Amino acid sequence: MKLKKGDLFIALILAAAIISWYGINKLTEPEDGRQIVIEVNGDLYRRIPMHEGMKRQEIHINLENGKYIDIIADENGAYVRDVICPDKICQKTGLVNKVGQSIVCLPNKVLVYIDGNIKPEVDGISY
Ligand SMILES: [Zn+2]
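# zinc ion complex -> structure
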């Protein structure tokens, strides 16, 4: 089979189309790889990868002096359902689901935040 100039041109256009489609697809891709991270006393307690249709999880954490915090994590994000906390700011924060958002419970030293990459990655495509 002989490759004609025209074929090469079409191949190049196709390649360019695929690359740009891939690039656009990456950019419009919803924030992927999100994780709900729970830290207690500055230590990682749990890391839950978020994905559509994931099972709702109830995380009950026993704290010092008989206190506790109940965190709900599902595909919509995470929130504090119940807590023994003097200010309850953590509970009032409500749902967090965007990368960088966090729930802080200062009195109990509990931190819940959403981790993940928001910046579209540029893979080694050089021109
Ligand atoms: Zn609190």
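# post-check
The beta strands are 35-40, 43-49, 57-62, 68-74, 77-83, 102-105, 110-115.
The helical segments are 5-28, 89-93.
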